[in-house]
């Protein structure tokens, strides 16, 4: 029998607010342990939570970016469980009345075309403390770091629409792109600002049944989510084929062994409405203000880029997927440069450089205005591609003007025919055999000789002119 | 440590010189109201050794009004019931006013049993910041004193919006200054007909004596109906036990509280510590709450729904009368002896409706008296009608010989 997987994802995303969800402590979990704490987020008796407006606003923006409907009334519940990372015995979470419901994201389906994956709801909750286990000494001890305690999270709960590891990974990427666009979250699985739990069950292909599901946790990259799901589908299929029943339980992904293993059931208690945090009632005015703060999202922006700047659909998509890049592209193009040339330079030169340096544009010294001036010199033939690339590298690090950098680095392109003539003479004199080869009909020799000539000019020769002159001489 | 106090203040942190509204007023608090640097165990092993880092809002305001904090009295575990309570003895020994948590009527019943005044403010009028509570939606800082003026003075100092308690609704402040103005009579006082079923013959006679005194002040007494009255107890019991079970989850014995030495892992340590920390009465209450949480959540949801209905019914009654009147305590149901959850509820049956609905209620001594037994006169007002309620209580108290002075 052929089986298909039914997959739902629960994704926790840390909001990048300045403070924690219910107090004014800095939202910086990575600081020196227990530095960012107060009686509220240490959950000491007698303290009362105070909902952060910024967290509520950022959560609402994130919901809108995922096409969810903000609920007129939402509320916090006490989610009861006992664990050393939660010394107050309950987590404030929106169980009964979540902030928003009924959203979706679109992904490119495995076989092409678009597939819409639905989101059941998004709710807010506070994060718990972090346990640090020290097993080295004589007595293993566990330490509790409260820096993370009470930091704001949203939990995005999907509908069980996902059918394969590929779709799960695309869903996460789509969510991440949308959320990063809003500026409300960083969404890094590696750094723990996005955590994904997967619920997986399998059923005979084509049936509508929902079978017992297994939850898989502890994946620290999108790749690992895909691998863990693939492993789990194979494991469950094998179970069924052997006639074993699937039990409802939680498994942990082991990134080293690349398998999932069963974990001891975590006690999950009920949710009681919290009597201290006021209910959230959304007014039309407030919602309108939040909607106005939502930036133009990637899909819409890509359409506009295609229409306004004449980009192909692929180019428009590439230029709009990341908000920084999209804004950088548009600013550069507005300086009067051919938009497709800008796109090409961002995709083939700038983006790989940023990736190598693991930097975002904003973290470099480069501005759209200086980038545009560089491309303008390239357009006018003042410099060639090689020179432009060298200058671009420098622009990432210094605030000097591109023109000065061209002069200083002597990147100005050589179009002086007499200078080029000298270079060509020398090369032809040094490589009589290759010249002979060409004359016998081997045209590939031109490329080889061009390379030598460019090298001799230290990359500064006007390549178009050089080639013309070389071919003429060889003939 | 004494029999009466868990902590006695020896320092004098009263600002010298300036005359403040509460200058010279000695206040005793329960050890579940945070005072920076004082042990604050709420009468429970679960909080053994806990010392708050901040003053409760009530304490901050009392201090800045010039009150002298005498110390903290002994209290029943986590403020559930009155077993082991020593507030009255602290008052006898010279304190002028006691701040005690009122979750089901503790302040009012304490006052009624000792010929004192007791007051429970409207929910949301006094900040709960720093109150180590058990039932967040029902409890508030209650007051017990020998005279009403002191209660009005203290209320004036402690009431009002506090940014540290975001659960306080955005409502106009209660104007307590008006509580000192004369009261316009007549006022209409309602007797809830369904509540009369609870009273025995002596209690009925006492209550009628009290009603007669009220009529003498110019009150118009009329019978009203609260069809859901008999449900107050079940609603309180169900909701309060669930909130207690959830909020007492924070006692894990790691950072404070009694910690059991045995246990192979954290889970066993939790179980052993909690088992040894809580005493049987609170344990039974927490068990009951946990049962609703885990096994019968629907019953809890029903109780919340009925609670909303009772709030609505009570509001409706206040369209026809200014106040509701009840006796405060029942004879034969001594809360200091109540050793079971059932017995605790029996002794607070007449006071807990104010906690369920968040209404203000005041206990006036020496009115409901029959054969020398004072069961207390309880006047309950509309939520946020605290000032008018205290005003009416003064009017009643002045008609009683020695009623406003002890």
Report on this structure:
The complex is a heterodimer of chains A (475) and B (406). With 475 residues, chain A is an alpha+beta fold. Chain A folds into 3 domains: 3-286, no CATH class; 296-408, no CATH class; 417-474, Arc Repressor Mutant, subunit A (Orthogonal Bundle). Chain A has helices at residues 53-65, 165-182, 222-241, 284-293, 298-309, 313-320, 323-333, 339-357, 368-380, 385-395, 402-408, 417-430, 432-439, 445-456, 463-474, and strands at residues 3-14, 69-70, 73-74, 77-80, 90-93, 100-108, 114-126, 130-134, 141-145, 152-158, 194-204, 214-219, 249-254, 259-262, 271-273, 280-281. In chain A, the strands form 4 sheets. In chain A, strands 2-6-7-10-1-11-12-13-14 form a 9-stranded mixed β-sheet. Chain A has a 3-stranded antiparallel β-sheet with strand order 5-4-15, with no helix packed on it. In chain A, helix 5 runs parallel beside helix 7 (323-333), helix 12 (417-430) packs across helix 14 (445-456) and helix 14 crosses helix 15. Chain A is elongated, with a radius of gyration of 29 Å. In chain A, 39% of the residues are buried. By secondary structure, chain B is an alpha/beta fold. Chain B has a single domain (5-230, 306-399), classed as Alpha-Beta Complex (Amidase signature (AS) enzymes), CATH 3.90.1300. In chain B, strands 1-3-2-4-6-5-10-13-9-7-8 form an 11-stranded mixed β-sheet, with helices on both faces. The longest helix of chain B is centred in the last third of the chain and has 21 residues, at 297-317. The two termini of chain B are 28 Å apart. The chains are: A alpha+beta (475), B alpha/beta (406).
List keywords for this structure.
heterodimer; A: 475 residues; alpha+beta; Arc Repressor Mutant, subunit A; three-stranded antiparallel sheet; B: 406 residues; Amidase signature (AS) enzymes; two-stranded antiparallel sheet; 12 helices; 13 strands; 14% strand
